[in-house]
Amino acid sequence: MSNLDKLIRLFEQFPGIGARQARRFAFHILTLPESDSRELADLIGNLQGSVIECTSCRRFFSRQGGTTTECGICSDGERDRTKLMVVAQDNDITAIERSGVYDGLYFVLGGTLPLLDKKENHRLRGNGLRHIVEERVANELSEIILAFAVNPDGENTSRFVEKLLAETVPDSGVKLSYLGRGLSTGSELEYADPDTIKNALSNRG
Amino acid sequence: MSNLDKLIRLFEQFPGIGARQARRFAFHILTLPESDSRELADLIGNLQGSVIECTSCRRFFSRQGGTTTECGICSDGERDRTKLMVVAQDNDITAIERSGVYDGLYFVLGGTLPLLDKKENHRLRGNGLRHIVEERVANELSEIILAFAVNPDGENTSRFVEKLLAETVPDSGVKLSYLGRGLSTGSELEYADPDTIKNALSNRG
Amino acid sequence: MSNLDKLIRLFEQFPGIGARQARRFAFHILTLPESDSRELADLIGNLQGSVIECTSCRRFFSRQGGTTTECGICSDGERDRTKLMVVAQDNDITAIERSGVYDGLYFVLGGTLPLLDKKENHRLRGNGLRHIVEERVANELSEIILAFAVNPDGENTSRFVEKLLAETVPDSGVKLSYLGRGLSTGSELEYADPDTIKNALSNRG
Amino acid sequence: MSNLDKLIRLFEQFPGIGARQARRFAFHILTLPESDSRELADLIGNLQGSVIECTSCRRFFSRQGGTTTECGICSDGERDRTKLMVVAQDNDITAIERSGVYDGLYFVLGGTLPLLDKKENHRLRGNGLRHIVEERVANELSEIILAFAVNPDGENTSRFVEKLLAETVPDSGVKLSYLGRGLSTGSELEYADPDTIKNALSNRG
To answer: How large is the angle between the packed helices A34-50 and D19-30, nearest 10 degrees?
Structure first.
């Protein structure tokens, strides 16, 4: 297999990319000025070295020089340390920070636990979460917010986290909460599903 | 203009129907057995006579013989008369009844009040709503639920109803509530808009 | 079943209309001025009487008074009677006339013959087509153009018509032709399917 | 700007990629085994060195060792050297080879000439094409097939190539041809545009 084909093969493993677009990516790189394709290669090759996983929340962040091992959010003294929001992935933090309404801390679980997948997902940081919670329960933690997608995999992941924390949380006074459900922006009643209507009604206020 | 063209013109005014589909409808009728096209014509011609507007909630219902002027929901003694949900249109009631979680009464406002439309919408039954509320406040009514779409027109309609009821409701002990907002079925955090995240967070529980 | 439900049921049989839109149609009619819903009913009820099938091409046209039994195209002395284009349905004629490049006559077969449907389609006017062709072969007819969709059902319909005319056409000097194939407006080579490329290449010029 | 952000910025310049997907690409790379992200970087960094532009048709191909400067198609003695198909980009060749119906040679122009773009496109290999044609006219070339998209930019590019070859081709006996137009796979007459119907009719056979 030629280098071109190998590269196309790797691009096909990018999220959401099929054979045709992978091929277009390769041609895109072929038409770049050499300095640009070189920069792209360097950034990719050094990404894992220049970006580190925060030892607290586990999200990736850029080590801009310095020797810090905690990301900007975790090391920000202004954030509310009584709240810990558990999300599936880094991108979820981006969306929540964009809304500007949450000032607590995060923990990135590293994915969801698919409902139909029997085998354990070794990339999920279940133990990491348990350790963090055990540690903080003794300190300031008062609320853990489970923030997963409203779909079967998201629900299953909530169940997984509940079990994981079943020994730590119940007697600790820490509250386990869930993002509220109801009508989201743009919802029209006529097209809303029964579950959403049910949630919208029981969360009315 | 031929009768065929006139009919196509009327079909073009059906909700969501363009010129091409209107034409297809006409050809569909041309290929029906004559008894079917005759039945269709009769049902349409007599619809307004056989369907009446409920004098309480204003939704359309079939007068199946009888002399009732209230629909099956309004005349059902089991429904909870302390709750009144205000919706834009009949189809919204269909969606809510399908969810099986609401047992109160309804009022069909007859549309929404577009944010950018300066002129009054004469089809909105604002006065009808006010009269019903004034009448019931003295009786059992304890909650009015505004159930409009989560979009600018829906919000504007909520503001319109609030003003409409500003003299009646505040001193009456009746609670004005709104359908809850947050993540709807299928929502993923990564793609959720800031308002939805904000609502999901403040309605967490 | 109420009249409202019966009407919704009939609307659900309109081409491309599902349960929800059928319901919207009924509510649309309920909100029309009575004169409009009455006119709609009359037009539908009288459509089959005011529109007749052309005895030559079989398309529907409006009998505007008069006693004509041929449509405007078939009775137009300027049209080229040496060409006969066979199409599946009336709407195809509308599209071809819109292009303004065909001046021959038409025959509406009344549908296509689905590839996987074993049973005969009794609405197809196969015999009618054969009679017309037999009659015209003796006169001026020199070309029959089969104009069906480029999909399996369209191809199957072409085969059906070829067999149907197998006794009449071959020795008659009449040419059986097919609409040309190749790149249609908007086609990009990169996304073209192999058959289209093959046709585009063999029809190059 | 952090390295992570720089990389996201570069991914946003990939064809068809927006801000959100660019970010997902970066996270995808962060979760790759280090050997994989290293391989990806190497392949990108060395792509321009391992892939060369064919000196004849100008498409990119992998130099698999060897010192060849012509791609597999151009150096294949079985291909028909009397035909030269001019395409906009490498991907078009992929589509045409997939159809398996063309056995001539190619020339990759390097893009199209947008109708509304006044300034010359310096990446178009107009001179390269002219030289190739001048050289081959004296030899075996008998047909040049212009194979651009059926849209305004494609048409404009055909005009551009015609002018470019206006001094060479007309007196040479070489035929300038164009991919055939008409109904493409899946076309239904009812939805076909007038130009496509016109082409389908004039290319009937």
So the answer is: 60
Rounded distance between C-alpha atoms, residue C162 and residue C16, angstroms: 31
Contact B50 C4 (CB under 8 A): yes
For the cut 80, the answer to whether the pLDDT of residue A44 exceeds it is yes
Across the strands, what pairs with D85?
A: D106, D145
Q: CB–CB of A102 and B201 under 8 A?
A: yes
Q: Is the pLDDT of residue D193 over 80?
A: yes
pLDDT digits (tens, 9 = 90+) for A62-75: 876 667 899 999 99
Q: Where does residue B95 rank: exposed (0-12), middle (13-18), buried (19+ CB within 10 A)? A: buried
Q: Are residues A84 and A153 in the same domain?
A: yes
Q: Is the pTM of this model over 0.80?
A: no
Chain A residues in contact with D20 (beta carbon < 8 A)? 91
Question: Which of B179, B195, B198 to mutate against chain A (most A CBs within 10 Å)?
Answer: B179
Closest Cα in chain C, distance from residue B176 (Å): 29
Spatial distance between the Cα atoms of A141 and C113, rounded to a whole number of angstroms: 70
As a whole-number percent, the residues of chain A with pLDDT over 90 amount to 73
Please give the pLDDT value at position D119: 67
C33/C101 same-domain check:
no
Q: Give the distance, in angstroms, between the CA of residue C116 and the centroid of all CA atoms in the same chain.
A: 20
Coil/strand/helix, residue C87: strand
Written as six digits, the tokens of A41 are 């290669």
- What chains are in contact with D, requiring at least 3 Cβ pairs below 8 Å? A, C
Structure tokens at B27: 């050809």
B88: domain CATH number is: 3.40.1360.10
Tell me if A34 and D48 make a contact (CB, 8 A cut-off): yes
Nearest residue of chain C to residue D202 (CA atoms): C180
Q: Which of A169, A147, A150 is nearest to A102 (CA)?
A: A147
| Chain B from 120 to 139: CB within 8 A of any A CB | none
Size of interface A-D (CB pairs under 8 A): 132
- Give the type of residue at A168: T
Instruction: List the single residue in D with minimal CA-CA distance to A13.
Output: D28
Q: Is residue B194 part of a domain?
A: no
Q: How many domains, chain C?
A: 2
